[in-house]
Automatic annotation (TrEMBL):
<dbReference type="InterPro" id="IPR050131">
    <property type="entry name" value="Peptidase_S8_subtilisin-like"/>
</dbReference>
<dbReference type="InterPro" id="IPR000209">
    <property type="entry name" value="Peptidase_S8/S53_dom"/>
</dbReference>
<dbReference type="GO" id="GO:0000272">
    <property type="term" value="P:polysaccharide catabolic process"/>
</dbReference>
<dbReference type="InterPro" id="IPR023828">
    <property type="entry name" value="Peptidase_S8_Ser-AS"/>
</dbReference>
<dbReference type="InterPro" id="IPR003961">
    <property type="entry name" value="FN3_dom"/>
</dbReference>
<dbReference type="InterPro" id="IPR013783">
    <property type="entry name" value="Ig-like_fold"/>
</dbReference>
<feature type="active site" description="Charge relay system">
    <location>
        <position position="354"/>
    </location>
</feature>
<feature type="signal peptide">
    <location>
        <begin position="1"/>
        <end position="21"/>
    </location>
</feature>
<dbReference type="InterPro" id="IPR023827">
    <property type="entry name" value="Peptidase_S8_Asp-AS"/>
</dbReference>
<keyword id="KW-0645">Protease</keyword>
<dbReference type="InterPro" id="IPR034193">
    <property type="entry name" value="PCSK9_ProteinaseK-like"/>
</dbReference>
<keyword id="KW-0378">Hydrolase</keyword>
<feature type="region of interest" description="Disordered">
    <location>
        <begin position="22"/>
        <end position="52"/>
    </location>
</feature>
<dbReference type="GO" id="GO:0005615">
    <property type="term" value="C:extracellular space"/>
</dbReference>
<keyword id="KW-0720">Serine protease</keyword>
<comment type="similarity">
    <text>Belongs to the peptidase S8 family.</text>
</comment>
<keyword id="KW-0119">Carbohydrate metabolism</keyword>
Length: 696
């Protein structure tokens, strides 16, 4: 088999002990590591600084079992051959790492319970608006050059985890603001702190507050490379196995692998596919040998998003960046400034596809924040669809001409099925929201008249939910136009869906201002459109009534307007009443109420004189009743004197609301009487007919 080396030096800008392919250009040097910190990794590691990328680790094998094979039985058979199981995988692969002699390896490879046996190999690391942004950030937030000196973003990766499979992360670096998890994985038994710098640099580009794409993403260190940037396929598998164990349903996560090999590892490829199936997008660096990215893993893994490098200054691919059909997208990877491991404020400038990949991982975190239910396949599609095309210079044979664009300029879909239900001084809108996963909000705007607001900032805002809005306090008689805008996480706005409602005016024609108790009245009215005065025909219209002095209206009846918009309805009021004609609205017309018409109800007082004449000194009886009944209330007997009515006597009404007065005039002559009942809150005053008594 070919040797496989996954080395930090290969994918980063620092390249100790790395041989480049013939004609390939090595990445520019970054901060020197010639005085690297002493190795603090697990004693007895078989990986050395001198091991070239892809070298076989002598005596170490990756054992993949067939489905349902008993791992314990296979391990026992392995021990019978003098082999030693070194590390089990729980989820990354169905198998384990073992130390085997060549003879034991040959025996185990023939075991029907073993699906695949491959040598373990050396891996190494591959090398709101932010002002004064780094050139990489500056480049990916705009489709085309020149650079603007700023980085625009509307999302920050909140709620998303980024697993940095690398040399660890310096947790206390100021660029991370405490967002590096205390928990992590260390293939060498340490704390996942970075003693190399590569992982810290990568993490800074993914999620640094100053240097990062996703400034609030949670960073998770997965240390699989040592202080010299070297590791093994088995160590990477162990790290990815740990990632799979951490992954829970609904957890939004992306894995960055700025490391790789010069040949393919089927086991590593399978593990990347398992991560993808578990809902985690894997972003991989293409490699820095200037060759075909398809030759190595994980760059050649089909489900990984493989990233080549360009210069942010002119979009040119450097000679060191790998190419080919396995490259999915390019990103800035030349002279990238980011965090460094030597101090809590240290920075370094590196070049390599290792620096390009975290730009894409950070952009993926932004999409995951806005669209938390998206799948890795859909996420990949979104990243590639929004990438800028026709800008990469010297992309290389079979490479895509796509450059990462971190913002989304594609508007979401529009709302559908927009309907408007008119009412009295209000309108209720309903719709079905678009299915876009990154839909951020729906905004409803309103304007008087028939011209809908043209933008989400025009007109008046209407309180809105995801599926509807209610506009209240509308002026009676006015037309209104509404616009509904769907807005995504990048503030892209869909074409507005609009609707209009027409104002109406309602008049009332009362029969009189006062009527006698017991009288049936007919109230008339008209309903017309406000704009052109055309009649509102064939619509239900209500006659409303309330007792004067109260606020609660009740519906007397509902009638249908005529072809001329007129209505007429009858009612017999029992007390002083207020009337109104109400059109509740319908179709495209808003409702309206008429003015209030007051109708007083006079009390009816009857009067019966038991005789029309009497002799001097005689008497007569005047009796009657009051309707409606007012038992216990007083009535007044009045006599006409010199053209004016004067009170003569008063009496309380009986339980049947009747009264009786005895009349005894003091002299001969003609006397005229009546009985008066004063007004009260419910009724107008009432007087009886006059009665005349002649005294002989």
């Amino acid at each position: 088999m070919q040797a496989v080396l996954l080395a930090a030096a290969l994918f980063a800008g620092v390249v100790p002990a790395v041989s480049h392919a013939a004609g390939a250009q090595a990445p520019p040097e970054g901060p020197g590591r010639s005085a690297a910190a002493p190795a603090t990794d697990r004693p007895g590691s078989t990986v050395t600084d001198a091991a070239p990328a892809g070298s076989v680790i002598p005596g170490h094998y990756l054992v993949t079992l067939v489905r349902r094979a008993d791992r314990g039985v296979v391990e026992e058979a392995l021990r019978d051959q003098g082999g030693v199981p070194l590390r089990r995988f729980e989820r990354a692969a169905s198998g384990f790492v073992a130390a085997l002699s060549p003879h034991a390896a040959a025996v185990l490879e023939r075991d029907p319970r073993v699906a695949r046996l491959e040598p373990d190999r050396v891996v190494v690391a591959l090398q709101d608006t932010q002002v004064t942004a780094t050139s990489g950030l500056d480049r990916v937030d705009q489709p085309r050059l020149p650079l603007t000196g700023s980085y625009q973003y509307t999302s920050d990766g909140t709620g998303v985890s980024a697993y940095v499979v690398d040399t660890g992360i310096r947790r206390d670096h100021i660029d991370f603001g405490g967002r590096v998890t205390a928990a992590g994985f260390d293939a060498f038994g340490g704390s996942a702190e970075d003693c190399n710098g590569h992982g810290t640099h990568v993490a800074g580009t993914i999620g640094g507050s100053q240097h990062g794409i996703a400034k609030k993403v949670q960073l998770v260190p997965v240390r699989v490379l040592d202080c010299n940037g070297s590791g093994s396929v088995s160590g990477i598998l162990a790290g990815l196995d740990w990632v799979l164990q951490q992954q829970q349903p609904g957890r939004r996560a992306v894995v960055n692998m700025s490391l790789g090999s010069s040949v393919r590892s089927a086991t590593l490829d399978d593990t990347v596919e398992r991560l993808t199936a578990a809902g985690v997008l894997v972003v991989a660096a293409a490699g820095n040998t200037g060759t075909d990215a398809c030759l190595g893993s994980p760059a050649g893994t089909p489900s990984a998003v493989t990233v080549g490098a360009v210069s942010a200054l002119d979009d040119t691919r450097p000679a060191f960046s790998n190419t080919g059909s396995c490259v999915d997208v390019f990103a800035p990877g030349v002279s990238v400034l980011s965090a460094w491991h030597t101090g809590s404020t240290a920075t370094a400038t590196l070049s390599g596809t290792s620096m390009a990949a975290p730009h894409v991982a950070g952009a993926a975190a932004l999409v995951l924040q806005r669209d938390p239910t998206t799948t890795p396949a859909r996420l990949t599609q979104q990243l590639l669809e929004r990438a800028t095309t026709a800008v990469v210079r010297s992309a290389g044979t079979a490479s895509p001409d796509r450059l990462l664009f971190s913002r989304d300029l594609v508007a979401p879909g529009t709302v559908s099925g927009l309907s408007a239900k008119p009412g009295l001084r209000q309108a209720t809108l309903a719709w079905t929201p678009p299915g876009d996963g990154d839909l951020a909000t729906i905004t409803t705007r309103m304007a008087s008249g028939t011209t809908p607001p043209a933008s989400p900032s025009a007109g008046t805002e209407v309180p809105t939910t995801r599926t509807g809005a209610t506009a209240g306090g509308l002026a009676t008689g006015s037309d209104y136009a509404f616009s509904v805008f769907a807005v995504d996480g990048d503030r892209n706005t869909a074409v507005a869906q609009t609707t209009r409602l027409l104002g109406t005016r309602v008049s009332i024609t009362p029969p009189a201002t006062a009527v006698a108790s017991g009288t049936t009245i007919t109230v008339g009215g008209t309903v017309k459109q406000s704009g052109d005065g055309s009649p509102v025909a064939g619509q239900p219209v209500q006659l409303l009534v309330r007792q004067r002095g109260t606020t609660a209206w009740s519906i007397v009846t509902t009638v249908t307007s005529s072809s001329t918009g007129q209505i007429a309805a009858s009612h017999r009021p029992a007390w002083n009443a207020d009337y109104a004609v109400s059109y509740p609205g319908g179709g495209v017309r808003l409702g309206a109420d008429s003015a209030v018409a007051a109708v007083a109800v006079r009390q009816t007082v009857s009067a019966v004189l038991d005789r029309t004449s009497t002799s001097l000194g005689g008497s007569a009886s005047l009796s009657g009743s009051v309707s409606p009944a007012h038992a216990g209330q007083r009535v007044v007997l009045q006599r006409l004197v010199d053209g004016a009515w004067r009170d003569v006597a008063s009496a309380a009404l009986s339980s049947t609301s009747s009264y009786r007065f005895s009349i005894k005039p003091p002299s001969r002559g003609t006397f005229t009487y009546r009985v008066s009942r004063a007004a009260d809150p419910d009724h107008a005053a009432g007087v009886s007919p006059t009665r005349t008594l002649q005294v002989l």
